Here is the input.
Amino acid sequence: MAPAVAKGSISGICNRSRPGRISKTMTEPSTDDHDLVAAVLAQAPGAFERLVREYQGLCWHIIQRMVRHPEDTRELCQETFLRVHQCLHQFRHQSALKSWIGQVAYSVAKRHLERLRIPLADVPDDGDGASLLEQIGDGFDLESACADAQAESVLHAAIETLPPLQRTLLTLYHLDELSIPEIATITGLAEGTIKSHLFRTRKQLRDLLEAPLGVAA
Amino acid sequence: MTIRKHSPDHPESVFDEREWQAQERAAQAERSGVPAAGSDDPLVARYRGVSRALRQPLASAPPADFAANLARQVMAAREASEGRLERISLQVLTALLGLSGGVTCVLYGREWIQAITRAMPEGAMQWTVLVAACAGMHWALEHWRARRAR
Here is the structure.
């Protein structure tokens, strides 16, 4: 069964800046956020471009990890920022601007996957990484990669085969260094669910690193 | 300690607190760039490899001109929207002006024609109407030719 994802359509995203379970320190917006939002709303020259520059990396990571297709990523990223521009007057500074923009990006990407009928997450599996190993694909020479000590290549290939949600959670946590409460704000998932996904996926990846020995034996 | 959790999100998932701590220590060590040491917990050491791979930048990034293009697009949309508003306002005001002119003509037109007729020498009114009709026809013909040329 796929994990329950908090309901939140794109049209409703503007009103979702009140995450009840997030601690204040995680959501407290900075004065920079205030200034930037005020400048964009006042149509100050270059303000919107600055906002995009500031948060395009995070948006790109979320959308790229969710949809994987580069052209779709660019278009959805564009759509995200157009929606941000459209709804910014509704932003009440009750969460960090980063989390709010992340929510919009996540919703846009999630809706895109729903339209394409691509499942967001897989069925929980407490296996030993064998399923991940099977998903890497026929084209990847795992044995040769291991022989060349290219464990990292194996991991990267495995990460690419993960379902969109798991890929996104891992990237937000490890690459963007967001905390679990911040990821909860963005995705609308419970913190426990995020921890569970992180734990299970990292364990699968670790098992995968150890699997070649078993396969070779 | 191993806890078997039952939840709607995860009907049956095993959460091992010790292993979770190892994952977190590995992630933290990679974040702070602490070099790996032989004395590390073997489980943490294995997870450091996973954390390192997960911290690799993605293959693709936004184009260099992404923000500038988007800002231009938003600016153009805003200007187009403002231009449309101006055009609609102009059309509404022109229609109101035409309507009020028509109403005024209906109410006072007869009096104006009588006053003009009285003020003109005898027979001048027919010539005036004829000249106006010629001018109107000429204008209509020119307009028609111009449209055909386009």
